[in-house]
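Hi, here's the filled form for the chain we discussed.

Project: internal
Contact: R.S.
Residues: 205
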Amino acid sequence: MVGCYYGQVTFIDWNVGRILDTLKELGLEQNTLVLFTADHGDYIGAHGMVGKGGGMHDELMRVPLILRYPGRIRPGAVTSAQAQSVDLMPTILDYAGLKPPDGVHGRSLRPFIEGRADDGRPAFCEHTGPNFFQRAIRTADWKYVYSHSDKFPPELYDLRNDAYEMRNLAAEPGHQKTLRDLHQRLKDWMVATGDASGAKLREPA
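And the returned structure, exactly as it came back:
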């Protein structure tokens, strides 16, 4: 299974190379923004799960985001600012010299790509199944996952000291303030973005 996954990654990488080579052959390389990303990751066995699994660990949430724009984006530039899928459209429009329409939930990543320091904005993630929903907030240091089902308890991970999210701290007394703070920030985001599920959130016990 893992070998198949790596083979698929290699196949995609080869085809991206074909696209870049063609842009160069056609003389379009210098004025074309290329953006490579994915919609979700794959557990490939991590946490005992495969595919999309049933959680919101980083194996699933963190996906590639690579931009290439010769003369505009410095090769090898890296930013620690957290990106979300809703940021892609504003970023593309920014490089095209256009403004995003009103009401867009994302923002342009161009300032961070071009050197602005990380401003600490958290990332949010959602999953809605047929009988329940999950929402998550991820900061540089912490991740909180809310599941609207008694089958899935709250999850809280200290990403600085537990990067692979192996120890759920949600029920530990010493971390209740962090859990409640993140729960409120998650709820505020859901209300601000019109997520109707925000009205269904249960407060942490």
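Let me know if anything looks off before we file it.
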